Amino acid sequence: MRIDKIKIMVAMAKRDLNQTQLAEKIEMSRGNLSTIVNGKRCKAETVIKIATALGVEYTDLIEKEA
């Protein structure tokens, strides 16, 4: 599963969070979060953890597959 970069960046901006702050909230390194934001596949549990920290549904963050 991939996170849509624009969607996560918008969600982070609405909560005034940068990648370092979000990574701390979800107990992940900033580097790992950055690779996920930039298109690396991740587990559904990770997407749910990120979505929960941002106060959105996980479906709001995932990249729609063509």
TrEMBL record:
<feature type="domain" description="HTH cro/C1-type">
    <location>
        <begin position="14"/>
        <end position="61"/>
    </location>
</feature>
<dbReference type="Pfam" id="PF13443">
    <property type="entry name" value="HTH_26"/>
</dbReference>
<dbReference type="InterPro" id="IPR001387">
    <property type="entry name" value="Cro/C1-type_HTH"/>
</dbReference>
<dbReference type="InterPro" id="IPR010982">
    <property type="entry name" value="Lambda_DNA-bd_dom_sf"/>
</dbReference>
<protein>
    <submittedName>
        <fullName>Helix-turn-helix transcriptional regulator</fullName>
    </submittedName>
</protein>
